[in-house]
Amino acid sequence: MSRVVKVEVTAEDIANGRRGSACDCPVARACQRAGLESASFWPDQERNGRVFWGKHVPGVSRDNVVVPRVCDTFAERFDEGDTSVQPFSFELELP
Question: How many domains does the chain have?
C-alpha cells in the first residue's frame, strides 16, 4: 500500500542548501524534513529525477521514487546560482 507525502521546499531550505549536493540541496533537505531518512535528490534534465532514501548499504538498492519535473527545473536553476528561485511544494507517492 502506498502513501502520499507532501514535501515543502522552504526559503530556509533554499538559503541553507548547497549547490550541486545531492544530500544537502533544498529538495533533499525538504524530503529529509518530510520523514525520508537520509534522502538525496538526483535531478535528470532528460527525464524526471529521483529521490533516494534509507540507509546506504553497499550493493543494496535504496528506496527511490520519481519526482515531479518542477524539482528538476528548480535544481537546474538553483545549481546555476539563480537567486530568484522560490519556495514550492510537491507530493511524492511512496511505495
Answer: 1
